[in-house]
Amino acid sequence: MPRSLGSRAALVLVTAASALVGCGGEAEPKGAAAEGEPLRVALIPNQDPAKVKAEYQPLAEYLSERLGMEVELDVPTGYPAVVEAMANDRIDLALFGGLTYVQARERAKVTPLVTDVTAETGTTKYRSAIIVPADSPARRLEDLEGQDFAFGSVSSTSGSLYPALMLREAGLDFRSDLDRFTYTNGHDATAAAVASGRVAGGGLERRILRRVVAKGTIERGKVRELAVSDPIEGYPWVVRDAVDPKLRDRIAEAFLSLRDPKLLGLLNAERFERVEASDYDYIERQARELELLVAK
Fold first, then answer.
1. Each residue of 237-254: pLDDT tens digit?
2. What is the DSSP string of 234-245?
3. Rounded Cα–Cα distance for residues 111 and 115 (Å)
4. CATH homologous superfamily for 128-230?
5. pTM for this one?
6. How far apart are CA 151 and CA 198, in angstroms?
7. 31 touches 20 (CB < 8 A)
């Protein structure tokens, strides 16, 4: 953990997703919408939740120190839990994928603030990939017809929506033209399923594929890319509109001014840039067409 973040930063780890979601109904403002309350932050579990939480602890400390307030951090076990938490005012700030963000804005008043620029792409954009075992006879997406396929989370942009779009462009409807399809709930789990030959193909975020191969989690040469998507707008950090506008600006500025190389390295980011709601309109349109706009 970077020592430059300071040892006095307050960090509270909330471990149960149920504590985020809670019950519906009218209630007094909580979290950063109420004076003196902590900033409640949640992250989508695009990989193993424990790994994601460990990765982002230094960020929570940085935000706590930079904002001068307590920060509560959680990584629920599923994408829908984060959407549900935001819709029920149980969190103030969340790292969403594009699809989970548009799912959340269907149910809550929220605003995207920033997204990251990574070394892999040099922009805010990234790509999804459909992979197959290295020795697979498949040479085109059409060759996956009648085969088993793995998606990540049903609410994942690059692990579900974009693989479905790529299959559709190849003339395949994932709901009817595959033998079976499954949801692994993580990009790393999808890579493992394909590498082991448990499925004939799978969709996942291309950057994460490269990272798990580089780390040796997936043996190099075990999988190959069959198709790569068009660029996808990056994961947005999204805030509830009920959060004080001055605090919203300070949160955005904390990301935009982040320069600590160790922390940026942990976040796989070179820097952060502003994003707008309209940057995700294409994702919303495609999600509607594929009936993926409701978090499941």
1. 999 999 999 999 999 999
2. PPPEEEETTS-H
3. 12
4. Periplasmic binding protein-like II (3.40.190.10)
5. 0.84
6. 13
7. no
